[in-house]
Amino acid sequence: MVARRKRMHKKLPFRKIVPNMITSGNMLCGMLSIVLTFHGQYVPAALLVYIAMVFDYLDGDMARRLGGSSEFGMELDSLADVVSFGVAPAVLLYSVYLQGFWSVTGALVAAFFALCGALRLARFNVHHVSGSFQGLPIPAAGHFVVSFVFAGIALPAWLMSLVTVGTGLLMISSVPFGNLKTLKKGNLNKVRAFALLG
Hints:
By secondary structure, the protein is mainly α. The protein is built from 9 helices and 2 strands, in the order αααααβααβαα.
């Protein structure tokens, strides 16, 4: 019992705390984006999704540099990604483009996007193969759909529904997408580079 308490109170090493704090910044951006969307601040809400992407890149990079990768960190990262790149963009798209579209259809389209993002992450955690991604990564998907809001592009609800559903299907598809490391080596084609980097 004493040994168990000691393990529970054992401090996490600094090298593991830092990446998790950065990941928490990712989730915080996602939550704030949702709050701003509720208040009609759509462009700042979209901007926070972009900022969340910066945190999402930095946490993995910092974990590798410090040797602080952990199973806990991986799970936290997935939860943060669902919030910031799945739920937050879905709420934003619903508020800007899909609200009132064919009764509940707009809500279902937004929910479908978030669900596809969650499924994409679950598959990644279980079946990830180093060197490539199967299906469009959720950060890229979230980045893509909120770019319409950030750029002030006006689209009819039916067209944005097609874009949203199509992006969701890409996330759960088996289409291979190269990662950023592959991009640096010059082996990523232009179409997939656009999908990853927006």
